Amino acid sequence: MAMGDQKNDLTGLMMNEVITKLEKWAPLSLAESWDNVGLLIEPTEDMPIKNVMLTNDLTEDVVQEAAQKNANLVITYHPNIFQGMKNVTRRNWKERIVLDCIKNNIAVFSPHTSWDNVEGGVNDWLADAFEFTESKPIQPRIENPKLGAGRSLVLKNPLTLMQAVESIKKHTGLSHVRLAMARGRNLESTINTVALCAGSGISVLRSVPADLFFTGEMLHHDLLEACQSGTSVILTNHSDSERGFLDDFQEHLEKVVFDCQVKVFVSKLDKDPLITL
Predict the structure, then answer these.
(1) 154: which strand partners?
(2) Which residues, 6 or more positions from 163, have their beta carbon under 8 angstroms from its beta carbon?
(3) What angle do CA 258, 261, 266 make, to 5 degrees?
(4) Do the strands 190-197 and 178-180 form a parallel or antiparallel pair, or are they unpaired?
(5) DSSP labels for the chain?
(6) pTM of the prediction?
(7) Was 176 annotated as part of a binding site?
(8) What is the C-alpha to C-alpha distance for residues 14 and 5, in angstroms, rounded to an integer?
(9) What does the alpha-carbon distance between residue 107 and residue 85 come to, in Å, rounded to a whole number?
(10) pLDDT, tens digit, for every residue of 117-156?
């Protein structure tokens, strides 16, 4: 099959069926109140969804890729529309994305923090970088304490900071991460507890007692506060703390959530904007 041809013989699912199945796995009510989740772009033509593309960020390159691969639904982890748009013109890249999706009959759905907070979602995937005896949400939901933001882990066995670094690199597939060591610690210092949150996690992690914070990005003064207060920090870059989940989740989404009624694939052009030189 050529790269630009994702045609298949599946009958597909109508948009309302797709959304029902997505919300059955991760209700949008799990998203944070500030978030913008759900169906963000709806094509003018109601047609069966046969090809679904997963991406962490929806860029113009990713939209072109979706069109070339005949994807009629893009599930973008980060919402491409977050704040209100006053215009939809071709002068701005975010507005061009909206126009090009509609032009190519591509629907856009964003789950964002609903996939963070659900059981088996992004934060649980991050937690799987470690062997642990206990994992629970840092900010549990009142209606179900197994759901919620962040994860607090008690490790099965103590790890040195260096071992934690290597475990995270192996799990995420990253060649490097950044480490800020707590005052008085070194690479051989051991940790027993981890608090983690995908993306920019300080609003969830702040003041949580843990030997290690694990997230995507933090501001300098938040890093300094953590380290001077006795907590080491490992950072991956924002989207690199999330993107690997899509590769692991793709098969489950296709076979379990969608019951093999659509084809699901992960964008090849989606990437973190930061590179290491």
Answers:
(1) 134, 193
(2) none
(3) 65
(4) unpaired
(5) --TT--------B-HHHHHHHHHHHS-GGGS-TT---EEEE--SS---B-EEEEESS--HHHHHHHHHTT-SEEEESS-S--S--S---SSSHHHHHHHHHHHTT-EEEE-THHHHHSTTSHHHHHHTTS-EEEEE-SEE-SS-TTSEESEEEEEEEEEEHHHHHHHHHHHHT-S--EEEPPTT--TT-EEEEEEEESSS-HHHHTT---SEEEES---HHHHHHHHHTT-EEEE--TGGGTHHHHHHHHHHIIIIISTTSSEEEE-SS---S----
(6) 0.93
(7) no
(8) 21
(9) 18
(10) 999 999 999 999 999 999 999 999 999 999 999 999 999 9
Banded pLDDT at 86 (limits 50, 70, 90):
confident
**Location of structure tokens 């978030």:** 35
Rounded to 10 deg, the angle between the 60-68 and 93-103 helix axes is 10
For residues 122 and 211, give the distance between their C-alpha atoms in angstroms, rounded to a whole number: 21
Q: Any known ligand binding at 238? A: yes
Q: Are 189 and 162 in contact (CB under 8 A)?
A: no
Backbone angles phi, psi at 117, to 5 degrees: -90, -15
| Beta bridge partner(s), residue 108 | 41, 74
Lowest mean pLDDT among 5-19, 102-116, 145-159, 233-247: 5-19
